[in-house]
Amino acid sequence: MNLQELNQIRDTALAEARNAADAAALESVRIKYLGRNGLLPEVMAQLKEVPNEEKPVFGKSANALKNELTELIKERQTQLTSGSKKADAFDPTQPGLWPELGSEHPISQVTARIVEIFQSIGFTVADGPDIETVWNNFDALNTPADHPSRDEQDTFYLNSGDLLRCHTSPVQVRYMESHKPPIRIIAPGRCYRRDTPDATHSANFHQVEGLFVSENVSMADLKGTLAYFAKQFLGDEVKIRFRPHFFPFTEPSFEVDFFFEVGGKARWIEILGAGMVDPNVFRKVGYDPEKVTGFAFGMGIERLAMILYGIKDIRNLYENDVRFLSQF
Ligand code: DAH
Predict the structure, then answer these.
(1) Cα(26)–Cα(63) distance, rounded to whole angstroms?
(2) Alpha carbon of 124 to those of 113, 115, 118, 184, 233: distances in Å?
(3) Cα 273 to averaged position of ligand 1 atoms, centre (Å)
(4) What is the pTM of this model?
């Protein structure tokens, strides 16, 4: 064995690897040259027969050939197998690829259900912008300048003097200022408060507002409407109760609790705020409180979704992790 013979082996080996028609042929080339009983190990074993002066060059060349051939075979292997995969991949009898479908966000689901129930008894959907005037968000709602919720610590003010609405109640003002009674609206939307996020607080969240204004609207109408909503939303067994409370824009005002089963146990759960529209609010929007009366209510969607679905941390609702969202 000498250098010239080695070079011949090199030329044929590389050519065979290059020309192998498929993965099986390539594998035979690999075994023929690099296998345990292949030609290259044999060449190495014959190093001692090589003339002394050729030995260093011969050794180097043999090694180089081994590396070169190994590389080439690897490269051809990926070429041949990816080619064959592609060729096999098109199977016209296979069903098509479906794009993965997402699911409706729990907040959207709860909102849609609430809106649907009120629509079924004649309420129409109204909305307003997230950026509100101080008038719509506070003054017209009979909320005086010294009310704690007007504190800079509690509300996001913009340089323009406007603010990010801290509830959906300003939609009441917008709607009354631009429509004549009777009014029956439901207004879902996003709200903002300067809350530090934790398991139950978020600086933005959602509410649904309701407003009914007509002649001779009474507490009985408010109770009947909310009782109807409760039954539609949670089933006939649900009970509701009104607890006296204070809101600047309603008089009298209430917190309304529903009694229903969550997690296997029925209990009273605070669901919304409500009341009879304060005459001062009617005056501010240009209605005559001697002629019209009305009721209003507002509820937080996140809280409702968390109770209904047993969600422990409000932040789960905003992280948009599909593993979480696809459960609903
Ligand atoms: N705006 C109140 C809040 O964010 C909720 C509310 C209470 C709305 C009573 C109303 C109402 O319309 O009558 O806490």
Answers:
(1) 20
(2) 14, 9, 8, 6, 18
(3) 5
(4) 0.72
